[in-house]
Structures are given as C-alpha cells and as structure tokens.
Amino acid sequence: MTFGKNWKILLLTLLFAEISPVFAKNSSELVYTEPFDLAAGGTTLTRASQEGIVFANPALLPLGAATIRWVGLETGFMLDRQLAEQGSSSISSAADTSSPDFVDKLFARSLHFGQSLSLSLLNKNVAVTIFDRMEVDVEGSRYDNGGLPQINFSGEAYAGAMATTAVQALRWLSLGVTAKYLYMAEPDIQIPITDEARIKALTENTSALRDELKYGKGTGADIGALFLWQNTYVDLSLGLKVEDVGGTKFTNDQKTIPQTNNIGLGLAFHGTTSVLHLSADYRDVSNAYGEKKFKKIYLGARLMLWQMVGFAAGLYQGIPTFGVRFDAFFIKFGATAYGRELGTYPGDKQRNMVTIYTSIGF
Prior knowledge:
alpha+beta
C-alpha cells in the first residue's frame, strides 16, 4: 500500500474541513497562530509575525518602518513529534487503517497531524488574509462508552478570510479592528470498538460522514489596542484585545463563539538589526470558556539576529516550545516544536507536535 493510500485519516480531515463545521469553538486558543509565534509560546498580543498580526492583535499593524509588511504565501505541516522522528515508514505504518493491529496501536498511542495555509497582504494600515488550518486527532479509549472500548475521532478545521485596518493614533498608541468570515468545524465522534463496520466506513468511505456532521459559517470582529513606550534600546508594550466582539454568530444557527478579553505585556531590547523580545499573554480574562488557568497563560521569548535568523522559546499551556526560522530574502522556512493539551488538566491529553513551514513572499 502506498504512502498516500495509508493516509486515509488525512482524507477524513479534509472532509471535515469541507462539510463539517460544528458551531462551538472549544478553546480560547486562536484559530490560527503563525508557527514562529507558536515557538514563542503562542504569545502574540504585543508582537506577532507576518500574517499572524491579523489574528493576534490588529493594533500591531502600524508598527515598524516598512510600508509593506508582508505579501506572500505560507504553508505548514504538523505531525506528532515521535512519528516525525521515526520517519515516513513509521508514519505510513501508524496511519495504515487496513493493518490488523491498527486498533491496538491506537490504544497504545494517539495519532495527531494537520496542515495550515495562509495567503496574505499587509501594509501599515490595511491587511487581508485568506487562511486554512486543520488538525485531526485519533485515539483509542478502553474505558469510555459505559466501560466499553471505543475509537475517538476528533478534529479542528478553520478557514476563512480576515480584513484588518489600523492606525497609529498617537506616538504611543495604536488601534485596530479586524472583520472576519469564518468556516469552522470541530467534529467529535466516538465509535465502540465492536462497531467494526462503522469504523471501516469512517476511515475508508468518506461519504459516510455526510450523515454524521453539520456545517456552519459565521461573521465577527476583533478590536485591539497597543500602548508602546520606546527609547533607543528598550521598548515596553501593553496589548489589549477584545476577540469575537459580542460573540461571532453563525448564519444558519443561533450558536456563537463567545467574546473573550485578552491582555499582554512585552519587553524588547534592540539594536539596529537585532532584537530580543520577551512577552506574556493572559487570554480570556473573563473566563468565557471556563478553562483552567494553565490553558490561558502564555510566555515566550524571540531573538531575531540581523533580521535573517530567528530563535524562539516559551511555554504554551505550560508545555515548553522552541523553534528556529531563517529568512533567505523571498523564501523563509523554519521548524517549531510545541505541545497542546486537548484535555481539561495538565497531562490529560497532551499532544507533542512539530511543525515544518515555509513562506514565499517579501
């Protein structure tokens, strides 16, 4: 069986992105975080990279001397870190749903992988981004469903368009607003291990999912502010953002994504071409999602050398992150290692991932 055929679960994810948005976003995490920002612990309210500004804090747009901030395409691929280290043959074997021990493997370990893409144009006052991010998680559980073992299929698929405008109202204050059109899916399907026919249908015949899933589209807005104190070598910043103002409503149902209020602090030490930026974000201050504090605190550091080489490290939901990025003029590429907690407490359903990404643009 070829590598492409083995990735039947990836085809399942693609179907999620096409037809299956569910209306309740399950976390205060951003729908899209630029990979280098993810390496910096997901801190974005006082500093963000490229198209990440649009999702992070629109008030960041006017900062800097460049008139054109970014025009280009970025793509990324996410994979379980252990599978990535073992290589493509192990990936193929782990994702081979026709293997007789496939289910046994899922009881021993989960499968988690995905991809992201963005096409963007940003200048000092206006930005437009079209994006897509999707991830799939498959795991076996021996004690759910009334004590019977089962296979859990879950996923996240977000796509849409974002339009941002921002102004530097004062030397020390920037303000911005983002309008967004979202296409969202967060399917979650539990199948008893005894239902072999249904498991086979969901992994091999994607049309079977059409009776399982719903879809939805929504429009909303974010507003942001950045207070910035600067001297020759040091910057101190305070970022504020109201995300999904009034709730992002979906057109074919009355469900909404709740409004969240976010705050971030940043401290930067810089010369003419290099900068060290330290940051801390606290998301969902009003606790609209009811998450534990470890899921809402983000810490990070970015070191950019000669505007060509970047190193980042941080804590994302209490999990260490790190990454590197290289800027070769029109081509940028990098790698980020990070973790996400899909459960409700630390270590519940932690997924350790690596993202490899590349950008073409300027």
